[in-house]
Design a protein that fits this description.
Keywords: Coiled coil. The chain has 92 residues and is an all-alpha fold. The chain contains three helices and no strands.
Length: 92
């Protein structure tokens, strides 16, 4: 039996809906990856700054101590918080 116009329209609608959902999923994935990248960059920048600035080192130490999830704190259990090199002088 031949497909009716209504059946063809419903099929096109279902295909369009699936394409839209796939696009939404790809955009959500892209946004999550971008968010993760930003966090990694900022974390690295903070760690780098903590090696040069005692205020940043103290803040980083406080952030780590105040992590609410145990599994997050465990990630830092054997890690030494960077501290500014006091032996170096800014005037060279």
């Amino acid at each position: 039996m031949a497909e009716t116009e209504l059946e063809r329209a419903e099929k096109r609608y279902a295909q369009a809906k699936a394409r839209l959902q796939a696009l939404k999923n790809r955009e959500a994935t892209r946004q999550r990856k971008l968010d993760t990248r930003r966090k990694v960059i900022l974390g690295g920048a903070l760690m780098d700054l903590a090696e040069r600035d005692s205020n940043a080192a103290a803040m980083l130490d406080r952030l780590i101590r105040n992590l609410s999830r145990e599994q997050d704190r465990k990630a830092f259990s054997e890690w030494d918080t960077p501290s500014p090199d006091t032996g170096q002088s800014d005037a060279t």
